[in-house]
């Protein structure tokens, strides 16, 4: 996932809490971790409050958390002499975390809070009956289900469908895109092929469902990035297309 660096930071904080317990007792480290958590919680709270996945909750959350941590450091410096003596270093740590969070966000590394991909798959047919979707795809054994990446076999000229289900808070309205990419062995990289969007409305327990399709796809490795309008990746799905030529 494109958000792995951010997930790695969260995991690192959780693991290092036990390994470097003595290091975490230092006030400057505690304040830095506190600010990171405060920043994250503020953005999450404002995303739900404002019902949007735009940049507004992140920008507001950043400045609210910056204001609160500044007040906290000011009061702490009045009570703890060592904090007052090292106030410059406290400000430096906060500035590094603040700018780092902004860099990760606008580089689309931080996932689009509060959206979450619940399910995604590739199918040879999708039909809608009432409120339900009837999905037809390849039969999978136990290993196929736990190992990432599906294989779908089609005949030349047929369609393949990507289906996704996304959790979103009630009343949240936004647009989601299926960004189709094909792996070129010649170029050694993923090439953009299509970016197909559809509107979603949050609140459904099993997630908002949607799909896109591609006719007569080239055989080989494909992936679809499920992303927001500004390119933040909610999730991604890899698969391989096998094309059979009819006699």
UniProtKB/TrEMBL annotation:
<protein>
    <recommendedName>
        <fullName>DUF2914 domain-containing protein</fullName>
    </recommendedName>
</protein>
<dbReference type="Pfam" id="PF11141">
    <property type="entry name" value="DUF2914"/>
</dbReference>
<feature type="transmembrane region" description="Helical">
    <location>
        <begin position="57"/>
        <end position="76"/>
    </location>
</feature>
<feature type="domain" description="DUF2914">
    <location>
        <begin position="173"/>
        <end position="241"/>
    </location>
</feature>
<keyword id="KW-0472">Membrane</keyword>
<feature type="transmembrane region" description="Helical">
    <location>
        <begin position="31"/>
        <end position="51"/>
    </location>
</feature>
<feature type="transmembrane region" description="Helical">
    <location>
        <begin position="88"/>
        <end position="107"/>
    </location>
</feature>
<keyword id="KW-1133">Transmembrane helix</keyword>
<feature type="transmembrane region" description="Helical">
    <location>
        <begin position="6"/>
        <end position="24"/>
    </location>
</feature>
<dbReference type="InterPro" id="IPR022606">
    <property type="entry name" value="DUF2914"/>
</dbReference>
<keyword id="KW-0812">Transmembrane</keyword>
